[in-house]
Design goal:
With 708 residues, the protein is an alpha/beta fold. The protein folds into 5 domains: 153 residues, inorganic pyrophosphatase (n-terminal core) (Alpha-Beta Complex); 133 residues, 2-Layer Sandwich (Nucleotidyltransferase, domain 5), CATH 3.30.420; 105 residues, inorganic pyrophosphatase (n-terminal core) (Alpha-Beta Complex), CATH 3.90.1640.30; 98 residues, Roll (Diaminopimelate Epimerase, Chain A, domain 1), CATH 3.10.310; 111 residues, OB fold (Dihydrolipoamide Acetyltransferase, E2P) (Beta Barrel). It has a 5-stranded parallel beta sheet with strand order 2-1-3-4-5, with helices on both faces. The chain starts with 9 loop residues before the first helix and ends with a strand.
């Protein structure tokens, strides 16, 4: 039984456990996974909305917000143009719902139907012009539509691009581009899904409804310094983004005029906020007795919100603050004041907090469907979204959760990935993504049930097509794999349904352990999908072939392209040249990475709590993998057929008897695994749902008899 177990220093584990008040087991897992920076740990140990990045860090976010507010106030017609996959569908629903809330009556929306290409098209622009639409908002697309956006501009239609795909060298010229993958965009996290980008704009639009939008706010804290001086610490905010800081030390009597300091310019045109205004004004008068300090005092509202803090000053609150754990530098009293100001805003304006959270189920769904890394703020967006998914205000989503029989349990990333997103994606792959948009938006129960059953039927058809064309392409895939030096699969042809090229590419990629390119020939055009494996980015290959494409784009490990049919052979030759000259170096399939080895007596229900703390699991945050030795097989049963079935165990771990399942292993029963054996096991911790009963279980990854 082979595995990797990274060595870690015990002192690092103790230090992390002490600072963050977590168990040694959890601390060891975090250290072993390399999650030790305070700024990273925040997203694993906390899931509060306040830890999300400020959307106004996007340099063009204010431009997007102002243009949409103008459209609302002027009664303009607006078109939301999305994509056909689950990310694009959820993005479309989220954006149109927000526009409606802003007072834009019946916003138009479109997603690519049938064989329409990905992204904004001239036909969509013509449709907008014919319907007197003056603003198009692209969601989950648009970054590669330079020519189409220029065409819209020629027709006096403004365009806002909300996208997350890799940006081309030459960006479209439009009203605003909100895309975390655009270089120098200002945003600190690049891996938002399309619906995550939409969620950022929604929060910014909600903030625009507060009294602080586009206002300068200065947080001020004056403290006595040594030798009779006073230290003025201040930070200036614009849309809650810190834009300037100042620290001025002043000795009374030496400097008597504010004009002779930097403070006058810093305070000019700004609302000044302090904590404990009476004391702050007293300190201010010690320095400038002739000047009245006009401030808003945060203390009364904070004491009202949190009675347990009554009477405390910023210094005491700093000592009690958990936020200090999540900063590499020491937090100051001014940092505490900033945090209190944000907390007050979130309480005063539910659109920034509770109401915003209620929108996150669709953000979670789209993020999971698009296989975005569950790191950084994606963890909060997904976790909070899953918490509210059963109560989300969509009859369609509620119907689907009930139909899939997961409504009454703690819904996980796996549940969404298995039972929800394939059905939503199927609508796009079968050419009718509008059905899924209407399914989420409909308030009519009869229509929801009708559309829901149609989506389920489409998913069955999609599965059947995938199985059929897997069989039809197996031979040509094998030939191409050999032709490309066992580095890549390249196959397709006429008749391959466009909607399943991505599915087939994923399947062939996994089967051959190599990138796969699957295409379909459609009259005078070829359209295809590319999928890669194990952190091998496919984008350099697509970039290398850019000259033969009409259009291409995607993420690091998944992409799409189109080209004229006459360029298909040229494309194939370029791919072959790339393989020969550059090469495709796929990392070796690794052995299981062990997060922690559990002594027999420590395999208790506590590991369930530890596993729960690091949810949600998914891309870039795989489920925890444990190793335990000298477990005893108490019972053993085969589920399914002897040759292709599974083994169900109960394992004696000393303190507990654990149920366990070992998938696709029934051939080992009675051969090298027997009742009463003492075994070592590598496993995950999961739950079994059966007849409305939830039972924890171990999911065996590998198992062998313990050495004597």
């Amino acid at each position: 039984m082979k595995y990797n177990k990274k060595f870690i220093e015990s002192q690092d584990v103790k230090d992390l456990a002490s600072r963050y008040k977590v168990s040694l087991l959890l601390a060891s897992i975090l250290v072993r996974r390399g999650i030790t920076r305070p700024e990273d740990l925040k997203f694993y140990l906390q899931d509060e909305i306040k830890y999300l990045h400020n959307p106004f860090l996007f340099h063009q976010m204010e431009d997007a917000v102002d243009r949409i507010l103008d459209a609302a106030s002027e009664g303009e017609r607006v078109l939301v143009f999305g994509d056909r996959d689950a990310d694009g569908i959820t993005s479309t629903v989220l954006m149109t719902d927000m526009l409606t809330e802003l007072g834009i009556a019946d916003p138009f929306w479109k997603v690519p139907e049938g064989d329409e290409p990905y992204g904004l098209t001239p036909e969509a622009v013509d449709y907008a012009a014919e319907n007197d639409i003056t603003l198009i908002i692209t969601v989950d697309c648009g970054i590669s539509n330079k020519d189409e956006i220029a065409y819209a501009t020629d027709k006096s239609i403004d365009v806002i691009v909300l996208d997350h795909h890799t940006a081309p060298a030459e960006l479209p010229e439009c009203t605003a581009i909100i895309n975390p993958k655009v270089p120098d965009c200002g945003y600190p996290f690049r891996d938002l899904a399309g619906c995550g980008v939409v969620a950022k704009l929604i929060w910014a639009l909600q903030f625009s409804r507060t009294s602080y939008y586009n206002k300068n706010v200065t947080l001020l804290n004056i403290v006595p310094g040594p030798d009779g001086c006073f230290i003025f610490n201040a930070t200036k905010l614009y849309n809650l983004v810190e834009v300037a800081q100042i620290s001025e030390t002043i000795v009374p009597g030496v400097i008597t005029s504010m004009e002779s300091t930097r403070l006058m310019d810093f305070f000019s045109g700004s609302l000044i906020i302090t904590f404990g205004a009476q004391n702050q004004k007293r300190l201010f008068r010690e320095v400038f007795p002739q000047v009245d300090l006009e401030t808003f005092d945060l203390a009364p509202e904070i004491y009202k919100l949190f009675p347990s803090l009554s009477g405390m000053g910023l210094l005491k609150m700093r000592e009690l603050s958990h936020d200090s754990r999540y900063s590499s530098s020491e937090i100051t009293e001014l940092d505490v004041l900033l945090n209190l100001f944000k907390v007050l805003l979130y309480k005063k304006y539910p659109g920034l907090s509770e109401e915003y959270e209620n929108r996150l189920p669709l953000v979670a769904l789209g993020t999971i469907a698009d296989l975005m890394p569950l790191v950084n703020e994606n963890r909060i967006l997904v976790n909070r979204g899953l918490m509210h998914i059963a109560t989300y205000n969509s009859k369609g989503l509620h119907w689907l959760l009930c139909e899939q029989k997961i409504i009454d349990r703690n819904i996980t990333v796996t549940d969404v990935a298995w039972y929800i997103t394939p059905i939503i994606n199927a609508s796009g792959r079968m050419g009718v993504p509008s059905k899924a948009v209407n399914f989420f938006k409909s308030t009519d129960s009869a229509e929801v049930e009708k559309l829901g059953n149609e989506l389920l039927s489409l998913n069955k058809q999609r599965k059947k097509q995938g199985e059929d064309y897997w069989g039809l392409l197996t031979h040509s895939a094998k030939e191409s794999f050999e032709e490309f030096s066992s580095s890549l699969v390249f196959t397709g042809g006429k008749g391959v349904p466009r909607g399943i090229t991505g599915i087939l590419a994923s399947k062939f990629s996994g089967y051959y352990n190599a990138p796969a390119i699957i295409y379909t020939v459609m009259e005078d055009k070829v359209i295809g999908s590319v999928r890669s494996i194990r952190n091998y980015s496919i984008m350099p290959l697509l970039d290398y072939c850019r000259d033969v494409f009409l259009d291409y784009g995607g993420h690091d490990f998944a992409g799409g392209f189109s080209l004229v049919s006459s360029n298909l052979e040229m494309f194939k030759k370029k791919v072959n040249t790339y393989v020969e000259e550059v090469g495709i170096d796929i990392p070796e399939k690794p052995y299981p990475e062990i997060d922690a080895e559990l002594p027999k007596g420590y395999l208790t229900e506590d590991i369930l709590d530890v596993a729960q703390r690091l949810n949600p699991y998914g891309e870039s945050n795989p489920p925890l993998v444990f190793l335990a030795k000298r477990l005893v097989i108490k019972t053993m049963d085969i589920v399914g057929q002897k040759e292709v079935g599974h083994i169900k165990f109960t394992l004696d771990a000393g303190a507990n008897i654990w149920p366990a399942i070992y998938w696709n292993s029934s051939d080992r029963a009675g051969r090298d695994l027997n009742l009463g054996d003492t075994v070592d096991a590598i496993f995950r911790v999961d739950y079994n749902y059966f007849r409305n009963k939830t039972t924890p279980q171990l999911v065996i990854i590998d198992m062998e008899k313990s050495p004597k």
